[in-house]
Amino acid sequence: MKRLIPTGDPARPVEFTEDAPPVPAPDEALIRVEAFAPNRGETFLLERPKPGLIPGKDIAGLVVQAAADGSGPQAGTRVVGHPPKGGWAEYAAVPTHSLAELPDAVSSVVAAALPLAGITALRLLRTAGGVAGRRVLLTGASGGVGHYLTELAAGAGAEVTVVTATPQRAERLLALGAAAAVHDVAKAEGPFDVVLESTGGAGLLAALSHLTAGGTLIWFGQASRTPATLDFFDFFSGPEGASIRHFHYAGAPYDRDLATLVRLVRDGRLHPEIDRTEDWAKTAETLVDLRERRIRGKAVLTTGAVTTGVLS
């Protein structure tokens, strides 16, 4: 089978190789991959790939071999999956606790855009607690996580202000339910009960200053790739009783969250923002554009396998 592997060259970060199909563990199903979606964090790993790195965490396709232990979907079932690795290939072995069935109404292209970004958004909102009636500030909102967070938080009753790089990117977020959009976090009109911060650097400090007394900043990324420097005395003179919480989405099982995301898409309550859909022959170019922030929302690559479903 074909598989994409790292090259170590930032200008062309992956290339095709021939590989044997994976041999699933007893609790894994073998999936014929129809579509996959890279994440920006994966592009950073490809700059200096560690030996043995086999990328690919967000996939959709068809179960061709059910798990030997009897768990999970049966052969012939369309699924979305979040394997720990190896998804950028014609076949992938995926733990059944990281799979969810797809209805006919949700295509593999749409489903592939869901896992990492969608799970992150769901779990961030759970970490934030009830957001109905609360003011929420979201930085780095133009990416896949930002689009999901905006729609989910607004749908739950939050008043969401998003920070984006351009007015064009703000338009879609406003359509998804954001109450306001700014292009400089310092100009956000606070105070905010919750700040969801994904940029790091100076942006984190500016976002922190917008918290209300007792508010919470949840730090879930560093898209700027610049560390934040926090001065104790500046923080002490800021919002009284404010707190900073670290967040990382990872932790199986993922099946229930995947099923929730699929249900929301099926019911028209969640709309994945897919800026680009390409044949996987263009994966290397797409990864560069994703790394350089030239893609809004998600990019999805297709392997040429037949994709069913009506949403695209």
From TrEMBL:
Residues 8-301 form the Enoyl reductase (ER) domain. Keywords: NADP, Oxidoreductase. Pfam families: ADH_N, ADH_zinc_N_2. The keyword Ribosomal protein does not apply. The keyword Nucleus does not apply. Residues 1-23 are annotated as: Disordered. This is Zinc-binding dehydrogenase. It comes from Streptomyces cuspidosporus. The lineage of its organism: Bacteria, Bacillati, Actinomycetota, Actinomycetes, Kitasatosporales.
